[in-house]
Amino acid sequence: MSAEITAKLREMGLELPEARAPAANYLPYVVSGSMVYVSGQISAAADGSLITGKLGADLDVSAGAGAAERCALLLLAQVKAACDGDLGRLKRVVKLTGFVNSTPDFTDQPKVINGASDLLGNLLGAAGQHARAAVSAASLPLGVAVEIEGIFEIS
Description:
Blueprint lengths: L1 H10 L17 E4 L2 E8 L18 H22 L7 E12 L7 H16 L6 E7 L8 E9 L1
């Protein structure tokens, strides 16, 4: 499945980034049995620059969904690292929790986090379908637009 995922990403015009090191005192992921718990991944562009801003003020839903898509790619990069480089071990996405840096009156958090959900569903099919929460945050680390954490099942 690893080669299939890489090929599908290329078809989608995307590339899996390298797993990022944690920025503070935490682990980027924890493997417990067949589950991988991935720490929140903040929105960063392909060149590594942060995608910052507040939804409802600085960014529209489309830009926020793009930021969420980047978070999903970073989550997959961590899963790949947790699987010793073999993303073929990924069995399914279990749950995502998405945090959206937004104004108090912004109510489209689910549409923003759809950027991640759509990417995973399109990339992995049924294995990419997951439970999810999409919530607002008054601010996020480093002023990023989106942060998403995830739970994955591996073999």
